[in-house]
Design brief:
The chain is of the alpha/beta class. 31% of the residues lie in helices and 21% in strands. The protein binds flavin-adenine dinucleotide. The site of flavin-adenine dinucleotide has 35 residues, from helix 1, strand 19, helix 12 and helix 13.
Length: 478
């Protein structure tokens, strides 16, 4: 594309992936503008002055792409640890191995029966039900999933249709309401593919009778984690390769679409020919000048969960080998606990310290008291039996980060909204990508985000395909 200047908003995984690929293809007319004073976006990590390393909520590295795996190996020079997931659900006084529905034998008998009867009825009503119908290309993208919970119209109905009322009441409803902070009846069921383990009644029964743990489901059943520096180590490793091509503390505030001009918070401006943005989509749309009321209206149909991540650093020996635990009940505000120093011992200052990280979701549908959140998380750990009362005195460090855009919610109206916004932006040379840039949870992990950037670079320079977004045909840029 000759001397065209490609401007990239955001030095998170998407922006860095795009820049990396442009450079790899020998293209040098690009620059990244990043609002933070650090790179990595939501995948950044921070070291506190007590020597604890923190992620923005527990991140684990797993992948659907060889390109990403090779990039990972190259940037981290193989200095990472390999883990086999040990994750759990905390229910009452016991830990149930994840996925809940495959490990019902851990439940007390009356509850186990309630779940089994519900599952049995569901399997009778919806024979062969596995996961929602996906277009065939998406199905192959996610490695093939079976047919349908066809009658349900939304995520809430789908849970009932597939899991029955016992599993729904005990785990699926309360956990998802807490994590998404969004009404389940306003969420679609199309995102579920590899994000929720669906049920095979015979397998559930067999696991109970043979007393077998069934824990290997899902794409993150094995994962990697950088030896040192947290998840963010992967993204700060891009820096030496992109010297002079990233401006930090550079928040874009306005975009003049006709002049192709970016305005920044510090008063400066830069022109571009093509703009790649990984800023949250509603924010991108609200920066456009002249304003686009049609796109602003469409963006109102997008929804995002916000999150507060609370890290607690302890003195004392690290507890067990758990990776993370889900909390469906209301004894604690968190939906997930990560045993972060179990990901890498170097996440704690030494072997006599350990760290826990709790994630709390909030939204207009689920408000929280931010000013008391650390105490609520600590008390929740005690009430849930994760910490003993006397361990509270061993807390030597706390870390809190508030994330306005944490999860892009797959709402019933999302696809129609994106179908209006993304092609319209492309017509004015703006390509929005990434977790909140595209707002598609199904392709919102780090590997997907890096690859959205990489594939966009291929498309801009060589009209290459963009396989990660291709299944979402409503995005097609006309
Ligand atoms: C709690 C939590 C847990 C997660 N766990 C995992 C996991 O286990 N595994 C996994 O693969 N993924 C996980 N993710 C997802 C992962 O964080 C994202 O996939 C990834 O960070 C998305 O990259 P991105 O570049 O699209 O967006 P971001 O990381 O959000 O980066 C966007 C960047 O754009 C910048 N920006 C925004 N607006 C402007 C502006 N106006 N001007 C300049 N710069 C701007 C931001 O500062 C930011 O740096 C998790 C996310 C969360 C929130």
């Amino acid at each position: 594309m000759g001397e065209n200047h490609i401007a990239i908003i955001g030095a998170g995984p998407t922006g860095l992936g795009c820049a990396w690929r442009l450079k790899e293809l020998g293209y040098n007319h690009f620059h990244i503008y990043e609002a933070n004073k650090y790179v990595g976006g939501l995948a950044a990590s921070f070291k506190d002055d007590r020597g604890f390393t923190w992620d923005v909520g527990g991140h684990v590295l797993f992948s659907h792409y060889k390109y990403y795996d090779d990039l990972f190996d190259r940037l981290l020079e193989r200095r990472y640890l390999n883990h086999i997931r040990t994750s759990w659900i905390r229910l009452g006084d016991r830990f149930i191995p994840y996925p809940f529905q495959n490990n019902l034998r851990y439940l007390p008998t009356p509850i186990l029966l309630e779940c089994l009867i519900g599952l049995h009825r569901a399997s009778q009503n919806s024979p062969g039900a596995r996961s929602p119908k996906l277009c065939s290309s998406l199905r192959s993208h996610f490695g093939g999933v079976g047919s349908v919970g066809d009658r349900s119209r939304n995520f809430r109905e789908w849970i009932l249709e597939i899991f029955g009322d016992g599993v729904a009441r005990l785990f699926m409803f309360p956990y998802n309401e807490k994590a998404w902070a969004f009404p389940l009846e306003e969420m679609s069921k199309e995102w579920i593919a590899e994000r929720v383990s669906v049920v095979d009644f015979e397998r559930v029964l067999k696991n109970i009778i043979t007393q077998k743990d069934d824990v290997s489901w899902g794409p993150n059943s094995a994962f990697k984690f950088p030896e040192e520096g947290g998840t963010g180590a992967l993204f700060s490793a891009f820096l030496p390769h992109l010297k002079g091509r990233i401006s930090l503390n550079k928040r874009c505030t306005r975009i003049e679409t006709e002049k192709h001009l970016l305005h920044f918070e510090d008063g400066s401006e830069k022109s571009y020919n093509t703009l790649v943005s990984s800023a949250p989509l509603p924010e991108l749309v609200s920066m456009l000048e002249p304003p686009r009321p049609d796109l602003l209206t469409a963006a109102n149909d997008l929804a995002f969960t916000s999150g507060i991540m609370v890290g607690l650093g302890f003195s004392g020996p690290p507890p067990g080998n758990k990776n993370w635990v889900y909390f469906p009940d209301d004894r604690t505000p968190i939906y997930r606990l990560t045993y972060f120093s179990n990901y890498s011992p170097k996440n704690a200052p030494d072997e006599n310290h350990f760290s826990l990280m709790g994630e709390v979701s909030y939204s207009p549908h689920r408000e929280i008291n931010k000013s008391n959140i650390i105490n609520e998380v600590i008390e929740g750990f005690v009430k849930s039996g994760i910490l003993l009362e006397e361990q509270k005195k061993d807390i030597v460090s706390t870390f809190v980060i508030d994330v306005p855009y944490s999860y892009p919610v797959p709402t019933l109206r999302r696809n129609a909204a994106l179908g209006r916004i993304i092609p319209a932006l492309a017509q004015v040379d703006i390509h929005s990508r990434g977790r909140h840039g595209l707002c598609i949870y199904e392709i919102g992990n780090m590997d997907h985000s890096v690859m959205q950037g990489v594939e966009l670079a291929d498309a801009l320079l060589n009209k290459g395909a963009q396989p990660t977004i291709a299944p979402f045909i409503f995005l097609q840029e006309k």
